[in-house]
Amino acid sequence: MPRTIDWDGDGIVLVDQTALPEIRTTVVTDVDALVDAVRRLVVRGAPALGVAGALGVALAARTLDGAALDAACDRIAAARPTAVNLAVGVGRARAALPGGPAAALAAALELRDEDVAACHAIGERGADLLAELCGEGPLRLHTHCNAGALACVEWGTALGVVRSLHARGRVRHVVADETRPLLQGSRITALELAVIGVEHHVVVDGAGASVIARGLVDAVVVGADRIAANGDVANKIGTYPLALAAARARIPFLVAAPESTVDPATPDGRHIEIEERDPREVCEGPAWNPAFDVTPADLVTAVVTERRVWRPAP
Ligand code: MRU
């Protein structure tokens, strides 16, 4: 499996997420194409969006300067509103712009490399925590959307935890929600689990809570698009019902994400902008298509980052 996002010396190389499970790469060489790729979810998942944002600034700096460069950076940062990593990535490369285009590119490549290291650290820490919370023996896990290698540069956050546990021989089975309407669970997470050889089943989103209620999983582990200062977590629509079900069943609900997803400027979940996508992704008739929901901090057993285990609930 190639890296989800990388730089080939001339442009941003992306595994086109709209084509999955077929693996097809595409190269983006200008800002318009990048903004379009972000909006259409050719590149998606908070950490991958962060790297895309940073590399986008490097792309823009090759041909633009002054107000035009500023406008291009703003446009990239605003291409999707919920995942804070996009704006964080843009900000990181933008801060290096006084050093010229080469400095912006170096900052973006540094972010890319940090993401790889962060995912591995999250995986190990999350695996340690689940072993502590759930005891010995192979685990049955439940995840939503795709927080895997294909949402990051490689390895993944929630699926990074699954990978670390799998490497220890500690995964029995994974339930992956289908994730309507764009099917990140059945198209992307199921593909990743098959590639790494983890036994899994896809369920329709409506089955998630009852799978938990029937005692078929030991813990839920998901990624995040933005974590507010109080620990409220925005993630793909359909995450909140899993957290409710996990609390009812008294099983751990873990959020695995890099520190860059924690947004100190957002006090709580009410301040997180929820992306509204084209209703036609849902059906041809009247539809409402919020792409994310907010899980309140009191339902989160722990947020696992590359630096800490954070238990936001009092
Ligand atoms: O709309 P998407 O596919 O970008 O949504 C992705 C998610 O909700 C992921 O769970 C989140 O970004 C974490 S990815 C490590």
From TrEMBL:
<dbReference type="InterPro" id="IPR027363">
    <property type="entry name" value="M1Pi_N"/>
</dbReference>
<keyword id="KW-0413">Isomerase</keyword>
<dbReference type="Pfam" id="PF01008">
    <property type="entry name" value="IF-2B"/>
</dbReference>
<dbReference type="InterPro" id="IPR000649">
    <property type="entry name" value="IF-2B-related"/>
</dbReference>
<dbReference type="InterPro" id="IPR011559">
    <property type="entry name" value="Initiation_fac_2B_a/b/d"/>
</dbReference>
<dbReference type="InterPro" id="IPR042529">
    <property type="entry name" value="IF_2B-like_C"/>
</dbReference>
<dbReference type="GO" id="GO:0046523">
    <property type="term" value="F:S-methyl-5-thioribose-1-phosphate isomerase activity"/>
</dbReference>
<feature type="binding site">
    <location>
        <position position="80"/>
    </location>
    <ligand>
        <name>substrate</name>
    </ligand>
</feature>
<feature type="site" description="Transition state stabilizer">
    <location>
        <position position="145"/>
    </location>
</feature>
<keyword id="KW-0028">Amino-acid biosynthesis</keyword>
<feature type="binding site">
    <location>
        <begin position="44"/>
        <end position="46"/>
    </location>
    <ligand>
        <name>substrate</name>
    </ligand>
</feature>
<keyword id="KW-0486">Methionine biosynthesis</keyword>
<feature type="binding site">
    <location>
        <position position="184"/>
    </location>
    <ligand>
        <name>substrate</name>
    </ligand>
</feature>
<dbReference type="InterPro" id="IPR037171">
    <property type="entry name" value="NagB/RpiA_transferase-like"/>
</dbReference>
<dbReference type="GO" id="GO:0019509">
    <property type="term" value="P:L-methionine salvage from methylthioadenosine"/>
</dbReference>
<dbReference type="InterPro" id="IPR005251">
    <property type="entry name" value="IF-M1Pi"/>
</dbReference>
<feature type="binding site">
    <location>
        <begin position="235"/>
        <end position="236"/>
    </location>
    <ligand>
        <name>substrate</name>
    </ligand>
</feature>
<feature type="active site" description="Proton donor">
    <location>
        <position position="225"/>
    </location>
</feature>
<comment type="function">
    <text>Catalyzes the interconversion of methylthioribose-1-phosphate (MTR-1-P) into methylthioribulose-1-phosphate (MTRu-1-P).</text>
</comment>
<comment type="similarity">
    <text>Belongs to the EIF-2B alpha/beta/delta subunits family. MtnA subfamily.</text>
</comment>
<comment type="pathway">
    <text>Amino-acid biosynthesis; L-methionine biosynthesis via salvage pathway; L-methionine from S-methyl-5-thio-alpha-D-ribose 1-phosphate: step 1/6.</text>
</comment>
<protein>
    <recommendedName>
        <fullName>Methylthioribose-1-phosphate isomerase</fullName>
        <ecNumber>5.3.1.23</ecNumber>
    </recommendedName>
</protein>
